[in-house]
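quick q for whoever's on today - can somebody do inverse folding on this one?? i tried earlier but teh output was garbage lol. tokens:
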């Protein structure tokens, strides 16, 4: 009989008495144990054995050994041996022998062994006990039979004298396996061993079969060493006593503790709350929480209530201390990222942890200090240089490392505001940094501008230090000089040389030399108002710029000193020795530049600002109105078919003295720029000179060049010794051209001048030119002439003259009554207000002829073939003598058209004219006549 060291007989008798006295109690115990076995404690065997081993260890961390021996799963531990109270706790489903400051030893969690056995035994250096489903059935056969043999295993306990635990251990739990695979069970235990060592500081070593895991702790670092190597954890522990109002329901443990653990060498996965062993409360936090929390009897869920809320709140408050144990740039790895909570506990913890992190100062600042997320700011673009430059400008600006993308989600979860470009620019407003510092700022901002067009817009108000010490908002219009300019002017925005940067150019600054400075608004405004208070320094500065950059049209407003004292606009002054002075009228509104002042500057510089040396050319590439102060410019615009797209004109032509035009034209021809304006096709200058210049008292267009002999008789040759090309550019005629209504009036007058002997061909050409422009002549702009030139070459009264429109009528009209014109009859008749011949002459046939098909006329067939003209398909009436009655007389004519019938005398001339009219080849009538007279190729070719 085994020695009963723990009074097991009394325990058995007490339970049996209760069962016999109340079968209901038996059923309750059986049901409770079944619930624990099948529900709450299933799959928690190692957790509960390790928890009990840690509780037994006491002050010195213990060792847990797990093995499979003779078909039994065994768990040996060091520490305190089994006691009578412990045995009582084992045999009591709802009792525990744990002290108030222990996690537990052989409490209700021991029920987890029933998952693998129905006959567990516990042997210790102080004795041993055994439980058995079979012996329990034997003890209460009737009760057991009512439940089909299903009885509580852990209510009846018996003593055992078997061999004690292995050497070096004080207690061993021995579990004969009912159906579980021992080797598989050991593998499962091996998988859980590292986590158990971390969760249970009461254990320093776990042995599973031939493998072992050790736990070593150094300050805030715990290292778990096992067969697969080491895994280091960063830990932070806090603890305290629960307030008295929370003691009830926490297994009489007023002391709470919480430990945060973070794997230094790898992220967590599938994490759950440990209380202190794993529960089923899923967590999404980057660190593991191991805390003494009140849990359900199954130890799977926490008992939600004030105690849990208190411990979780205290744990969350301690979380930043774990974070600060990490290097600064790694700390954001411990920030819970946005997402849905995985459990109710997870939601409470996430909220508490985030609030604690927002308030704590743990983020590294750019200036080397620390700040809380609530007071922090982070740049919206990675730039270590920019962060370094702004560390003293932006309070709470975070270290450059935290600008990198891998920190973005964590900082967003903490509500750390990101600084976009606009905020950076606003922070820089009014900062009085050195120019070199600003250059570094621009360099750091450059990548932002390179990739983001909206950023470039926001950078538009970026401050720029100027050479004069001012700081202006926005680079637009700021000048960046490529070489120094000795010129100071209020309002002139020149970037400080040490701040010059390509970014400023992209943002609207102007890469400037003397030209850009000269064209700046400040200089233009100063020139515009230079007459208000003449300033020698301003004049010197502007002329210095002009010496390097050339002139501008608006520089004429710059005032310069005038001979005799005073100041006057540059474009109202002549150089002291200007050739232009020779040709201007005495009343020309020009002054003369002070000679001493003029001697100090190159002639071309003074000319460039408008001081006249020779004629000045005005250029406007985008004219909108005739407002360029050019003489008679509006008339030139009106004379053009369309407004000019560009105006290039020589100024002050109307100031030339009448007798000085030869010299004036010589000056124009000697200046390439002026000459280009004179020679411009359809340009203002040539237009004006042709009308208003004077050569021998007349406008240039009233003359012809001596070599333009085809105009002889109509225009007189010019007597000037100027070169022909100069005279031609000034408007002296080289050919017969009618430009405008003034030319029409002039040409009609010349044709009606009986003193002029004009060749017949030129008369015809002149009338043809008039006919061409007649449709463009405005009504009433040209008075009809009193006298016109007719076919005889004579000049006669226009009263009895007609304009020939039908050629056959010429045979019945006297030449002195027919205008000498060939074509354009209707236009000429309207222009000259003369009748058409067809309106005045009516003729009647007096002879009879024979109607002949054109194709039957052999000479006609050959002539058409030789000229490649298709034979007419109709007929012609051929007369031996063709007689027509017209104008009160009978006339023998070569051909006639009566209605639509063509008549011809039987002569080569008559047939040729009729044939040319019928075929529409009137210009070939003389060729037809020759071929009809002698229809041979020799006539055509000769």
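ok took a stab at it. sequence:
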């Amino acid at each position: 009989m085994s020695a009963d060291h723990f009074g097991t007989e009394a325990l058995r008798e007490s339970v049996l008495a209760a069962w016999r006295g109340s079968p209901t109690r038996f059923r309750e115990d059986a049901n409770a144990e079944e619930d624990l076995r099948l529900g709450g404690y299933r799959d928690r065997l190692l957790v509960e054995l390790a928890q009990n081993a840690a509780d037994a260890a006491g002050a010195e961390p213990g060792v847990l050994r797990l093995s499979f021996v003779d078909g039994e799963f065994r768990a040996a531990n060091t520490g305190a041996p089994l006691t009578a109270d412990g045995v009582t706790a084992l045999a009591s489903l709802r009792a525990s022998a744990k002290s108030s400051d222990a996690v537990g030893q052989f409490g209700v969690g021991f029920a987890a062994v029933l998952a693998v056995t129905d006959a567990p035994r516990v042997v210790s250096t102080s004795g041993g006990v055994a439980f058995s489903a079979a012996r329990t059935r034997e003890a209460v056969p009737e009760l057991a039979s009512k439940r089909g043999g299903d009885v509580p295993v852990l209510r009846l306990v018996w003593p055992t004298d078997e061999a004690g635990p292995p050497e070096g251990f004080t207690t061993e739990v021995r579990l004969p396996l009912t159906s579980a695979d021992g080797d598989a069970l050991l593998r499962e235990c091996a998988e859980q061993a590292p986590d158990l060592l971390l969760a249970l500081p009461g254990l320093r070593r776990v042995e599973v079969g031939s493998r072992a895991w050790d736990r070593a702790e150094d300050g805030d670092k715990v290292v778990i060493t096992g067969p697969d190597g080491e895994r280091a954890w960063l830990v932070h522990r806090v603890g305290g006593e629960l307030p008295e109002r929370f003691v009830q329901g926490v297994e009489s443990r007023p002391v709470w503790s919480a430990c945060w653990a973070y794997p230094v060498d790898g992220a967590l996965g599938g994490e759950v709350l440990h209380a202190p062993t794993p529960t089923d409360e899923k967590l999404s936090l980057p660190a593991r929480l191991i805390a003494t929390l009140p849990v359900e009897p199954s130890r799977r869920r926490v008992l939600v209530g004030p105690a849990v809320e208190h411990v979780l709140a205290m744990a969350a408050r301690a979380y930043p201390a774990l974070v600060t144990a990490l290097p600064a740039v790694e700390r954001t790895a411990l920030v819970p990222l946005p997402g849905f909570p995985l459990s109710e506990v997870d939601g409470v913890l996430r909220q508490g942890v985030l609030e604690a992190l927002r308030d704590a100062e743990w983020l590294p600042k750019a200036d080397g200090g620390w700040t809380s997320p609530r007071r922090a700011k982070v740049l919206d673009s990675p730039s270590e240089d920019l962060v370094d430059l702004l560390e003293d400008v932006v309070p709470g600006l975070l270290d450059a490392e935290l600008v990198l993308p891998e920190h973005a989600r964590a900082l967003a979860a903490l509500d750390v505001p990101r600084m976009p470009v606009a905020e950076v620019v606003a922070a820089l407003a009014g900062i009085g940094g050195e120019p070199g510092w600003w250059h570094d700022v621009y360099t750091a901002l450059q990548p932002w501008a390179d990739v983001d067009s909206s950023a470039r817009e926001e950078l538009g108000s970026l401050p720029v230090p100027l050479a004069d010490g001012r700081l202006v908002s926005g680079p637009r219009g700021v000048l960046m000089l490529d070489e120094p300019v000795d010129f100071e002017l209020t309002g002139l925005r020149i970037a400080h040389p040490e701040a010059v940067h390509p970014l400023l150019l992209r943002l609207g600054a102007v890469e400037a030399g003397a030209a850009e400075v000269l064209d700046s608004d400040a200089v233009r405004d100063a020139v515009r108002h230079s007459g208000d208070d003449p300033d020698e320094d301003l004049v010197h500065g502007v002329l210095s710029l002009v010496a390097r950059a050339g002139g501008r049209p608006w520089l004429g407003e710059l005032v310069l000193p005038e001979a005799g004292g005073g100041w006057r606009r540059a474009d109202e002054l002549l150089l002291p020795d200007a050739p232009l002075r020779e040709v201007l009228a005495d009343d020309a509104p020009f002054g003369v530049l002070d000679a001493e002042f003029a001697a100090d500057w190159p002639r071309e510089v003074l000319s460039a600002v408008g001081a006249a040396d020779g004629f000045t050319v005005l250029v406007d590439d985008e004219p909108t109105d005739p407002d360029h102060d050019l003489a008679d410019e509006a008339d030139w615009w009106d004379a053009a078919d369309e407004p000019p797209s560009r105006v290039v004109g020589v100024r002050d032509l109307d100031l030339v003295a009448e007798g000085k035009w030869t010299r004036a034209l010589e000056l124009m021809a000697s200046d390439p720029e002026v000459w280009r304006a004179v020679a411009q096709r359809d340009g203002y200058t040539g237009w004006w000179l042709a009308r208003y210049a004077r050569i021998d008292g007349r406008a240039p267009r009233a003359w012809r060049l001596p070599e333009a002999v085809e105009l002889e008789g109509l225009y007189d040759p010019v007597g000037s010794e100027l070169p022909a090309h100069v005279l031609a550019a000034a408007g002296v005629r080289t050919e017969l051209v009618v430009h405008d209504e003034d030319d029409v009036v002039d040409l009609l007058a010349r044709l009606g001048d009986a003193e002029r002997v004009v060749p017949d061909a030129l008369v015809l050409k002149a009338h043809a030119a008039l006919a061409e422009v007649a449709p463009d002549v405005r009504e009433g702009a040209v008075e009809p002439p009193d006298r016109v030139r007719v076919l005889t070459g004579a000049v006669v009264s226009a009263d009895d003259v007609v304009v020939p429109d039908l050629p056959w009528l010429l045979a019945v009209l006297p030449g002195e009554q027919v205008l000498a014109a060939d074509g354009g009859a209707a236009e000429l008749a309207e222009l000259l207000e003369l009748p058409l011949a067809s309106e005045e002459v009516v003729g009647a046939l007096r002879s009879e002829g024979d109607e002949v098909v054109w194709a039957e006329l052999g000479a006609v067939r050959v002539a058409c073939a030789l000229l490649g003209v298709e034979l007419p398909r109709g007929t012609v009436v051929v007369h031996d003598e063709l007689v027509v009655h017209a104008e009160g007389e009978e006339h023998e004519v070569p051909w006639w058209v009566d209605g639509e019938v063509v008549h011809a005398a039987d002569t080569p001339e008559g047939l040729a004219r009729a044939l040319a009219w019928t075929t529409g080849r009137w210009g070939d009538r003389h060729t037809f006549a020759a071929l009809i007279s002698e229809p041979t190729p020799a006539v055509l070719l000769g």
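fwiw The CA atoms of residues 312 and 348 lie 8 Å apart. also Residues 95-106, 249-253 have pLDDT under 50 and may be disordered. so keep that in mind when u check it
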